[in-house]
Amino acid sequence: MTYAIADEPIETSRRHLVVNPSAPLLAEMLCGTWLSLPWFAWNAIAMGSPTRRKEIALCALSLVVTAVLAAAVLALREGGVIESRTMLRCALLGIITWKLAMAQAIYTLQSRTFHVYEYYGGPVRPASYVLSTGWLLRDVVIGLSDDPLWGIIVSGVSGLLGGGA
Amino acid sequence: MEDRQVEVLLEQADVQMRLAQWRSAIDLLRRALAIDPDHARAHAQLALALLGAKRLAGAEIEARLALALESGSSLAHYAAAAVLRAQRRLDEAWEHCEIALTADSADADVYVLGAGIRDLRGEVSEARALLVRALELEPAHAGALTRFARLELDAHRPEEAARYAEEALRARPDDLDAHVVAGLVDLVRGDVAGAEGHARFALTQDATDHDALGLWASIKARRSWTLGLWWRLNAWVSLRSEGGQVALLIGSFVVVQIAIILATAADLPLLEQVLSWAWLGLCAYTWVAPELWKRMLQRDLGTVVLDPDF
Q1: Which ipTM did the prediction report?
Q2: I need a labelling partner for B241 at 20 to 30 A (CA). Which of A108, A112, A118, B93 fits?
Q3: What confidence category does residue A163 fall into, taking pLDDT thresholds of 50, 70 and 90?
Q4: Do A97 and B30 touch (CB under 8 A)?
């Protein structure tokens, strides 16, 4: 019989797939939300994070609110409220800020468990291959649909800043 | 029989905690709690051990469990105050510290913790008063003397700080915190070699100690301008709570991006370019600098010979 401390990850069979949470955070910036949010969620499950439900809920919240904000921006653009390019860029900056804040919040939460996981010698996989593949695939994923709503939702920080949507 | 077993485990854990052996202490306390999951003191001690291991989330839960099991326990309030102070939740920390002081007014450690909280709240004279009381109770309390040295350093009185640091080292020659503060005093007085000696000694006691590593890093920052800049930036950002740090970073990002958008709208392409490149440069620098820093520290720490007790 043992006593389980609340911040400790549970044992899972997918520990060999765990990456440092800074990898999905970097994916949000370089590759896109299409990669970072599923990666954060997967990492929480693979690590056996005690806060995995909260982390997955934050991923879902991030996605839903991004979709709502993107739809609102596009509707305002259609309705002629957002007329200039400057206004559109400011509106997109609002969405980027939301995405960044959420990615950072999930990263902070997941990092707490990750430190304990590492502390007890949990294996950590290098993430550079996934990141570089994601970076190469980002235009393909964003180009899967012509709908600007799709572009805004799946793009990352660099994509939206560069006018990828 | 089980009660005796738990007491023995708690005593062993206490010894490990005094040696800053957090992992062993946590394992011993885990065993104690497996025998008696409702042992308030074990939960409070576990909170302090987890705090030592920088596991703040777990430490907070354990402190709350200790308080729920024994709301009048001085140790539980002390643990809660220590955890909340580490989280920079200073008002709540002080509330618990006050209760701990009321419950056990003869424990110098509680006064020292209280002084640390008041100091962080900017209430320096109150912090001093608490330290004076701690030293009345225990004149050679290394923790109180060390804290006094820090207060004097903050007040730009390095000579006074040096006096307290020396007294702390006389009281406990192998005290890690006393060596760290003595190193900081040396650094302020420009004696980098002296500071390095103290840092090296502190790291032989505990190569993972945050303050000892901080001192080591400060010494290195003196010798490398580019990495020193990052270290100072990092130290300035880390003064804030976790939420405050994120807000600061995202706020800076938004401000720079708005400036870029406005520069474009005002048809100032040069300003737009400068801002974009400056931001990119800052991102690259803050990405690369910690890695270089980590490697430099790892290389340096490879030369540190650990104390056999570590």
Answers
A1: 0.78
A2: A118
A3: low
A4: no
